[in-house]
Amino acid sequence: MTKAITQGIQVSVETHFCGVKQHLKQKHFVFDYFITIENLSLTTVQLLSRYWEIYDSLNQPEIVQGDGVIGQQPVLKPGQKHAYKSGCILSSNCGCMKGYYTMLDLEKNSIFSVKIPTFQLQTESILN
Q: What global pTM score does this model have?
């Protein structure tokens, strides 16, 4: 598990290799990632948007950004967590992701960024 804490918001990431899918003679490597966002601060926050950099060893980095996560913009009171699962498809058997969440401190009405730590996407054969 990979973790990072920014301004009292902890982001934890676990990954899972799901397998290989073939499409038009090209292999695609499928990964799931599980993210837990925990509010360790003393104020209530809301996740507004996400920004991802996806690195695949065979391709140029891909940038993904948008509102919320999986269609939600969760509000986290102190001590609360929000967990979700998403996925990524790579052309190679290894890569990584990193990024940040844009959060709103609802008590101070101020926006800040929360780091999503770099995490690896690797098949089991690379790990051995």
A: 0.91
